[in-house]
Amino acid sequence: MEFSSSLLENAVSEFAKLPGIGKKTALRLVLHLLKQDPGNVETFGETILKMRREIKFCERCFNVADAATCSICANPLRKQELICVVENIRDVIAIESTQQFSGVYHVLGGIISPLDGVGPEQLTIEPLIQRIQQEKTEELLFALNPNIQGDTTIYYIQKKLQSAPVKITTIARGIAFGGELEYADEMTLARSITNRLPVERYVQH
Ligand SMILES: [Zn+2]
Where are the zinc fingers (C4-type) (predicted)? Predict the structure, then answer.
């Protein structure tokens, strides 16, 4: 691609760094911005910059937050004794969209996957164990992707909690094994939460 302006070229190459955006799409987006009022483009740029600079992670559940505690943890209407364990922030957003879950979350920040070099120590598992002991959690609901890594992670955490008086459940497998939680439709995900099962009936070892 040949450009007569390096300013344009730089902008295109920045957009092309985003996932799923090729050079052609990047050019279309940049040309769109070029047609906008400079004030609108300024708001666009500042919003991205502000998000990156000021976003925080909840001290309790590791979800994204505007303050030290996220709005879900701070909501007195949410059942604080029911913790839903998820892999990442996208899963929190997917479950919140179902409007079927009234508890709080714990974002692991990944999943145990030895082949990818991800062990328990890279995840927020230790803070989760401490949290359960301190908060007198009644139920831990696992909403992890139904695959080997998900099962391994559940098994590991369950072992660590053997002596804790906490009920451990997992979302029902309305979602295909090997499927991705974030791509499930809202109905399937909602039903999976309503029909959750005890972990003993789910992970066979
Ligand atoms: Zn939180």
Answer: 58-73
